[in-house]
Design brief:
single chain, alpha/beta, Rossmann fold, two-stranded antiparallel sheet, 7 helices, 30% helix
Length: 270
């Protein structure tokens, strides 16, 4: 895989089809060659670590994930969250090819800011996907409806010349010959997908499989600026794409490396 970084960077992990980088995504995105990436999937911090509680595996646990999911300045929390989203989306736009697309996953904690930031930074929203979870954790407070959905925004550059790729025929085929709708239903991540380690916001493989099958072709460059557990990378390799993943937590990149090695081994064997 070609090195698309304009200045020297140290790769945490590198193969013919994948590159992982440890560090600040803002700094590393600025070193990436302009208009070099075909598709971006991002699952940015939701900023919902507020010392509350939730239910996981039948146990009451804290919702706090880590420092990266918290806002230090509570007084200016909304402005800081929105500025954070505008900054990384702006950098993603610079590295995205003219006909490229970006997918961003989030909950009500951050997705409205993200939608606004996309339009402010010159993107056009293509679809607003609702991911409906069949087995969400119960609502312990019993003072609102159970949170069972997440939103995934699909967008392209707001330019009349933009001709993004959408595999309409394949999506229709796997949907039984009918046009695929923007509500996708499925379970949370299976335990078998966490055998190399866990990440608090790990997405299920079937979700990234559909996203990448809908919007990529073999040889595409797929970027995940908040790599996490590496599900994007696993599905990118399965779909014949090249992958660049960035994260600022070494343990998560180690988890991603194990998953990518396993996937490359499987692809080589079969």
């Amino acid at each position: 895989m070609e090195n698309l970084f304009e200045t020297d960077v140290e790769f945490f992990y590198q193969t013919e089809n994948a590159q992982l980088l440890l560090g600040d995504t803002f700094e590393l995105l600025q070193k990436l060659r302009p208009e070099s990436v075909d598709v971006i999937f991002a699952d940015p911090p939701y900023f919902l670590s507020n010392n509350g509680i939730t239910c996981r595996s039948g146990k009451m646990v804290s919702v706090n994930k880590a420092a990266w999911d918290m806002v230090d300045d509570k007084e200016h929390m909304l402005a800081n969250k929105h500025q954070f989203n505008r900054r990384w989306i702006n950098l993603c736009k610079k590295v995205l090819k003219p006909n490229g697309t970006i997918w961003i996953s989030g909950t009500f904690h951050n997705i409205f800011s993200i939608g606004m930031a996309l339009e402010e930074e010159g993107f056009r929203i293509i679809n607003n996907i609702t991911w409906q979870k069949t087995n969400p954790p119960p609502n312990l407070a019993c003072r609102c409806f159970t949170h069972s959905t997440e939103t995934i925004i699909w967008a392209c550059k707001d330019d009349k010349k933009t001709k993004y790729f959408f595999n309409y025929a394949l999506m229709k085929e796997i949907n039984g010959g009918k046009q695929m709708k923007d509500v996708w239903t499925g379970s949370l991540t299976k335990p078998s997908e966490k055998k190399f380690g866990k990440h608090p916001t790990q997405k299920p493989e079937y979700l990234l499989e559909r996203i990448l099958r809908a919007s990529t072709q073999a040889g595409y460059i797929v970027l995940d600026p908040f790599c996490g557990s590496g599900t994007t990378g696993v599905e990118a390799l399965r779909n014949g794409c090249n992958f660049i993943g960035i994260d600022n937590v070494e343990a998560y990149l180690e988890l991603t490396q194990k998953r990518l090695d396993k996937e490359l081994e499987s692809l080589f064997l079969y």
